[in-house]
Write a structure and sequence with these properties.
Layout lengths: L3 E3 L2 E3 L7 E2 L10 E7 L25 H13 L3 E8 L7 H13 L8 E5 L4 H7 L6 E5 L5 H8 L18 E7 L7 H13 L4 E6 L5 H5 L4 H4 L7 E8 L4 E10 L2 E11 L7 E4 L4 E3 L9
Parallel strand pairs: 4-5, 4-13, 5-6, 6-7, 7-8, 8-9, 9-12
Antiparallel strand pairs: 1-2, 3-10, 10-11, 11-12, 13-14
GO molecular function, one term: metal ion binding
Protein name: Molybdenum cofactor biosynthesis enzyme MoaA
Cofactor: [4Fe-4S] cluster
Amino acid sequence: MIEYKLFGRNILIKRMGCRNGDSMGVPIPPSLNLFVKVTNACNANCSFCSNAVHTQERHLFDVDKLFECIDEIFNQRIILNRLNITGGEPSVVPETVNRIIEKLNASPKYKPIHLHLNTNGLLPKSQEMMRIARFDSISISMHHYDMSVLSDIYNCHIPSKAIEFEGIDIDKLNLSCNLIKGYIDSPEEARKMLDKTIDIGIPRIGFVGLMPVNQYCKEHFVDLEEIRIDSIPHVYFTKSKNRGKNCKCSNYLYNRDGKMVEIYMRNYMNPNYCKSSVVFDGQYLRQGFHDNNIIY
């Protein structure tokens, strides 16, 4: 059996692709997704977020060590499938993100890396960061279609021009909408969110159930089955993928007046499943999101 290592430590790698519907997965080359957590701080204070208590916390970030980790992945002949800039909210530490971008741009060997900015995209600083051309995709957390309700969810003021996205390549954007009891929790509410996505011109949206990180999430959890996405008129199933009991996702299309939006549904996910996922938090490289899994 082939073992894969980083800095002399064994790591978990997926050997088979996801099952596509009822079809078995096929062998895939060794690859990793690298999540780069640039900060714990955030401009919002969402009750469902594991970072909710870290709204003002920042930490030292070693950019040189990050690139030692990236080079080690390459040296071990492992494909770096995706580099995800995440947090917290990355736009509260633009100097860190800019230093990462500068180093990525300085060498042609980093060009294949796929960048993913996890941002709420609703404030001037985050919108400014979204204009960086180096990002291949940008995920925006937007958990309701009504701006006043969004302010309530985020526990912060949302400006009226928050979703105009001037100067941003909108084809790169993905909306991420948490299902929250009392907010987006029914087919009717989900359809309004789909219509909002079309109205602002974003081509894709993902609906995700809350992870059980605190009591709020447990009390406000909405199962995707309650949304009954395929009961919404003009929603069409396209495919589903799964890794058995560890995770399953489904994809759909929604059509309104000749305009289409892609829909991603995360049916379920085991938060302890971490094959092919590594995390760099500015100081340490870990397998998965658990403190005791330090690799380097």
